[in-house]
Automatic annotation (TrEMBL):
InterPro entries on file: HMP/HMP-P_kinase_dom, PM/HMP-P_kinase-1, Ribokinase-like
Domain Pyridoxamine kinase/Phosphomethylpyrimidine kinase: 13-258
Reactions catalysed: 4-amino-2-methyl-5-(phosphooxymethyl)pyrimidine + ATP = 4-amino-2-methyl-5-(diphosphooxymethyl)pyrimidine + ADP; 4-amino-5-hydroxymethyl-2-methylpyrimidine + ATP = 4-amino-2-methyl-5-(phosphooxymethyl)pyrimidine + ADP + H(+)
EC number: 2.7.1.49, 2.7.4.7
UniProt keyword list: ATP-binding, Kinase, Nucleotide-binding, Thiamine biosynthesis, Transferase
A GO biological process held by the record: thiamine biosynthetic process
Protein name per its UniProtKB record: Hydroxymethylpyrimidine/phosphomethylpyrimidine kinase
């Protein structure tokens, strides 16, 4: 049997820890055939992002059509889209597919480097998020998109309501950046009716580069397999928790999560 098919539409991380590199490793680890549309190229390592070069809209559109029109997709994941023209182009392309879409509204890198132009935020709100089956913002991205500063679990519920107001079917609010010294990390998945609070151990490991990309790709992998959203998110949370626990040093800065932890 052929494996399920998932497509990542994202930027390239030359250090291999995040972006399309993390997405494709995640998909492979979870038994899914990963395909890619590169939106931007970054010069990036364990210390941060040294440069970003967007691809032309025509190149993004051609990659997407080449994959979808010939091979097909069973789930799509979006990551770094960089600019308003790229966001709007990708949103237009997503409207042409029936597959579920996971939107990771990437705003900044793990090192704090900007990966989304300020001028693109309105396009994310009005064009991209309405196309999402699941949106997966972290707390910094919640603030960037909604203005809300989240400091506790009740704030996560308000954040989910604000994100859902932009149109995604489900919001997965990632609570890894909640202030305080907690033994567990909590995420909230909700469609405005159902609530799923997902808890996992918090590991004392600074090597967490690529966490957001990995989680979103794992959710897309589950959806490509035909799982319902809550089950796909639950399995993705388990996978990324193991990857964080096994994160390793690389270079002189922040190392990546280990996408192959299940095989070691």
């Amino acid at each position: 049997m052929n494996p399920p098919l998932a497509l990542t539409v994202a930027g390239s991380d030359s250090g291999g820890g995040a972006g399309i590199q993390a997405d494709l490793k995640t998909m492979l680890a979870l038994g899914v055939h990963g395909m890619s549309v590169v939106t931007a190229v970054t010069a990036q390592n364990s210390r941060g992002v040294q440069g970003v070069w967007e691809l032309p809209v025509e190149a993004v559109r051609a990659q997407f059509r080449a994959v979808v029109d010939d091979i097909g997709v069973q789930a799509v994941k979006t990551g770094m889209l960089a600019s308003a023209p790229l966001v709007e182009t990708v949103a237009e392309l997503l409207a042409s597919v029936e597959a579920p879409v996971v939107v990771d509204p990437v705003g900044v890198s793990k090192h704090g480097d900007p990966l989304l132009a300020e001028a693109a935020l309105d396009s994310v709100r009005t064009k991209l998020l309405p196309a999402a089956t699941v949106a997966t913002p972290n707390l910094d991205e919640v603030t960037q998109l909604t203005g809300l500063v989240v400091e506790d679990e009740s704030g996560m519920r308000r954040a989910a309501e604000a994100i859902l107001a932009y149109g995604p079917r489900w919001a997965l609010i990632k609570g890894g950046h909640l202030p305080g010294d907690f033994a567990e990390v909590v995420d909230l998945l909700t469609d405005g009716t159902e609530e799923h609070w997902l808890y996992a151990p918090r590991y004392d490991n600074r090597h967490t580069h690529g966490t957001g990309c990995t989680l979103a790709s794992a959710v897309a992998s589950g959806l490509a397999k035909g799982l319902a959203v809550p089950e796909a998110v639950r399995e993705a949370k388990s996978y990324v928790t193991g990857a964080i626990a096994a994160g390793f040093a690389l270079g002189s800065g922040i190392g990546p999560v280990d996408h192959g932890w299940q095989t070691r």
